[in-house]
Amino acid sequence: MPEVAELPVSLYKSETKPDWCPGCGDYGVLNCLQKAVSKLGIYPKDLLIVSGIGCSSNLPGFIHTYGFHSLHGRAVPVATGAKLANPDLNVVITGGDGDAYGIGLGHFLHVARRNINLTYIVMDNQIYGLTTGQASPTSRKGHKTKSTPAGNIETPLNPLALAMISGATFVARGFSGDANHLSDIMAQAIAHKGFSLVDVFSPCVTYNKVNTYPWFRENIYKLEDVKHDRSDYEAALKRAHEWDTKKIPIGVFYQTIAPTYEEEDVTLKNVRPLKQKLGLTSQQAQEILKEFI
After folding, report:
1. pLDDT band for position 277 (cuts 50, 70, 90)
2. How confident is residue 245, by pLDDT bands cut at 50, 70 and 90?
3. How much is the CA Rg of the chain, to the nearest whole Å?
4. Within a domain: residue 52?
5. Is residue 2, in this structure, part of any structural domain at all?
6. How confident is the model at residue 1 (pLDDT cuts 50, 70, 90)?
């Protein structure tokens, strides 16, 4: 990343304090996001955080930037609209695995294939936390939850592989229990030009007693430690399918450079929609009227 003047993390501290359960992994995600944008020198006025519904989707209220708490599964279209209206704005989406990969999955696929310059940070705790502990799209097979008391029988969705085959140009995974590593990944993702996904293992200490902090610490490894080549698509896809005991990778899986949607859309090349004048001139109005006479 190019050299930038870092800003104090205190700039992004909100007067509204998080009300997540004590020990929730989302505290770490919030802190890492604040560190990442301060490292990138992004002023609060130049940053918009958009979320859907869920425990993690409350995050925009806990950070001192522009924020939009949208509908369940609809954070991506809201963020897309904001980014296309003002391409100069840094737009980050935050949400959970249910919001992103369940009801919001259709939007997730399309924002990836369009390569819109957005960053999606998904707090993936393999459970529905806000609705008190049902199986989510990423819950592992056999996981006993409120909605699957005999064990989950569904195959879990693989968000990293799905993002890559859909066209995402930056795909990463982090762990909220490793702040330095996660904040660095977030900074890379936000600085990346194109759609970036950061799937974060963010333990739910209340309803998920399987995928805990100790469990993750025992079972994850960093891609940097095995000299993974993030430009190798096939290698990245193979890594994304690893989930055996002691073989769950975190880090940047894949990164490539490709034209963004904003760069290729002819209506955005010369004029920022936000700066366009509203209304019609007298001449334009007359020309429109002529078409109907």
Report:
1. confident
2. low
3. 20
4. yes
5. no
6. low
Structure tokens at 112: 């990836």
Q: How far is CA 284 from CA 175, 275, 280, 281, 289, in A?
A: 55, 19, 6, 5, 9
Helix residue spans in the chain (DSSP H): 26-40, 75-85, 97-98, 105-114, 159-166, 179-191, 213-219, 233-240, 261-264, 282-291
Range of the domain at 247: 9-291
- Report pLDDT digits (tens) over 123-148: 999 999 999 999 999 999 999 999 99
pLDDT, tens digit, for every residue of 150-168? 999 999 999 999 999 999 9
Q: Is residue 256 part of a domain?
A: yes
Instruction: Provide, for the chain, the percentages of residues in helix, strand and coil under a 3-state DSSP scheme, each rounded to the nearest 5.
Output: 40, 15, 45
Tell me the pairing of strands 66-69 and 170-175.
Answer: unpaired
- Calculate the average pLDDT of the chain: 94
Contact 34, 63 (CB under 8 A): yes
Flag whether 1 is in a domain: no
Specify the number of domains making up the chain.
1
Residue 112 contacts by C-beta under 8 Å, 6 or more apart in sequence? 163, 166, 167, 168, 195, 197
Give burial (CB, 10 Å; 0-12/13-18/19+) of 103.
Answer: middle
The DSSP 8-state label assigned to residue 11 in this structure reads G
Identify the CATH number of the domain in which residue 195 sits.
3.40.50.970
